[in-house]
Amino acid sequence: MLGVGNDVGENVGLVPGVLANRLPPWLILVIGSACAFFGFGTLWVAVTKTVAMPYWVLWIALCIGTNSSAWLGTAALVTNMRNFPLSRGTVAGLIKGYVAVSAAVYTETFNGMLGNSATNLLLLLALGIPTACIVVMYFVRPCTPSLEEDNSTEHSHFMYTQISSVVLGVYLLVATILGDTLKLSQAVTYLLFGIMILLLLAPLAIPIKMTLYPNKQTKEKPSTLAPSYSTDSLSGADPENSEPLLGSASATLGTSVHESDDSTDLDVLLAEGEGAVNLKKKRGPRRGDDFTFLEALVKADFWLLFIVYFCGVGTGVTVLNNLAQVGMSVGANDTTILLCLFGFCNFVGRILGGSLSEYFVRSRMLPRPFWMMCTQIIMVVTFLLFATGLHSLIYVSTTLLGICYGVQFAVMIPTVSELFGLKDFGLMYNFMLLVNPLGAFFFSALLAGYIYDKEAARQHPGVLEPSNCYGPDCFRVTFYVCAIVCCCGTLLSVLFIARIKPVYQMLYASGSFRHPRSQQQLH
What we know:
Residues 218-243 are annotated as: Disordered. This protein has 523 residues and is mostly helical. It has helices at 2-11, 14-19, 25-47, 55-83, 88-112, 118-136, 152-181, 186-200, 205-212, 245-251, 265-273, 293-297, 300-321, 323-329, 336-363, 369-388, 394-420, 425-432, 435-459, 476-507, 516-522. The protein contains 21 helices and no strands. Helix 4 (55-83) crosses helix 10 (245-251) and helix 5 (88-112) packs antiparallel against helix 15 (336-363).
């Protein structure tokens, strides 16, 4: 139930999704900081036994504390997706990749600097997150994006950040394994922690370099990105200082993609004049246009993406929430390495998912959900490997699942923005994240938890509340069910890809994201 509470808080971000279009990013960060302060602060007060609290209060406090990540993630992701509209896959992979690797950062901090103290960790979360947000909130803001297709400077900056993140991920994996297998001195521990901080801050070299050596302004080229909605509500309360990014960025997605979309606005006006079209009926948006959230809810493709994403991530989060128990059930008593391995592979999957999908969608017009389909096929095999209950396969299975789980995240985010626009992207993205708590509740709490407890009771007859279960039967049925669900997700992915293939052929016909209506206007 604590795992479900964690997933509920972390992924129920509908409120920040709605407010992302009404409040400036810095205010979203402030609200997220307040959630961290009060949520984790309450847990700290309870754990230090300063105040005695019932379990349900702690559960709510956990939800509030972890909900801070929904606010912070929405502010960072929505702002940067609009700041870099031509590199959505790369942006999504990087931001979600750093989220994945942050687990290893906290683990290294917990083991090395906090002395494995739970109270110190809760205090760090309660005070450290608000402090970090206050420091960086000025820089998380809309900026005028570069709309050039071949921007070598921007490409090199993204490449540098990706390399930095990979180096950080590899370093954390090695450092965690060393710290878990060897007894390191205090000096070595501090040294490893210092190197981690330097690698974590490595991307700051980009703004420092751009500040010290600014590029000469080049003549602006005519943009094929057409503004489609006002930016006043997106950039804060001061319309005079609002920057033009958000309107133009959102327009990258306002595209007409159906084969039946050949009629132009002029044709519609002529038909209206002849009485063939009811003037009161306004044509709704097509896939690729800017949808409102309610308009997207009635589209079959929106729900297909939701279900496909649920099949992949909903089953993956089941293993993630129970990975320690899964490891112990097959004889892997030291689960720290197992958890670190999953976190690292999750990070690799997010980076690869964003980069690969970006490359192939530009070069081959390959719909991004193709990679969701491929990874869910691998997940079917992975769950069957888990079901064998063999100790020799646990690390291979965890590696494969971590990578596939990460790819699902990195692909879903740009897919939502491409099919339904950036207008209500924050709300749609957070709605998709509801699959995490749903999957955790149905597959983890109800299915896995019930079967695990039942098998533990069978192994320990007469014990009122047996805590541990050993052997392949503890999770075998759960893994079979997860494999079947991923099979269904694969079949639905095929249907989904077939439906949206014309969309991507229209959006990326020029090798980069373009608005077809705007191109027609230029011609």
